[in-house]
Amino acid sequence: MNSSLANDDLDLNIFDPYTQAALIRGGFLSSTNILKYTEAEFRKKVNLTVAATHSVFIAAANISASNVKCHKKPNNHELTTGCKQIDKLLGGGLFKYGITEISGESGCGKTQFCLQIALTVQLPLSLKGAKSGAAYICTEDRFPSSRIQQMISNIRFKYQCDSKIDMNELCLTDYGDNILISHIATVEDLKKCIHEMLPKALLHRPIKLIIIDSITAVFRGEYTLSEVPRRSRDLRDIAVFLHKLSVEHGLWIICVNQILAEIN
Q1: Model pLDDT for residues 128-151, shown as the tens digit of each residue
Q2: H/E run at residue 137
Q3: Which of 3, 44, 51, 153 is the most exposed place for a label (fewest CB within 10 A)?
C-alpha cells in the first residue's frame, strides 16, 4: 500500500503538551480513531477542554479530507444523475467519498432530484450506476411513495443497455425494495439513525447512497438563540461522522438544505 494513502497519524507537535499527553495516554494517534466519536464523546474520553478538543477534530478532519483526495483515483467513479446535461456540469456525475449538498427554496425540485439519484444508484455499471441500494432519511414530509413508483415504471423506457445481461438486470431490479426508508423527527433521532442504524444497515445491505432530506429541518426550533454554538457543533458532528462513513464504505452522500426565500 502506498504510504501516502495510509498516512492517518496526527502530527502531535501542533498541540500543547497537555493535549499531546492526553492523546498518547488514550491511544488516539490517528484521525480514524478520533472521528469514531462526536466531539462531546471524545472530550469526555480524553478529558480535554472544548477548545482543545475542537483543535484535535479539525486536525483529524483535515487528514481525513486529504486521504479522500488520494482515494479519488482510480476508485471514485461518477454516479449519473439521470440527466446528461447535469452530469456534464458536474464533471461526469456525482462523486463519492464526501458529502454533496443540494440547496434551494421549497418546491424547486430538490426531492425530485434525490428520488432520481436513489434510482440511478441501482442502475448497471454500464449506465454509470452502482448496482447498489440507497438509504433515504426523511425529516420533513413522508417519503413520496407514489411518485417513486411512477418513476420506477418509466425506467425501462428511459434507459437502454447494449448488453442483454445489463438489460435484464435493468428490467428485473426491484427498485422500490432497494431503498431503505427512515422517518426522523428530532436531532436526537437523527444522531441515533446516523451513528447506530446506518452502520448496521451498511453491514447487511448493499447500500452505496445515503440521502438526508433535509438535514436542516430537524435543527429548526430545537435550539434557542443562546444555543446556536451547540447547534453548530451538533451539525458539524453529524457531518464529520457522515464523512467518515463515506470514506470507509465508499458512499455517495447527499444532504438537502432548504433555504428560506425571506428572512422575517
Answers
A1: 999 999 999 999 889 999 999 999
A2: strand 133-138
A3: 3
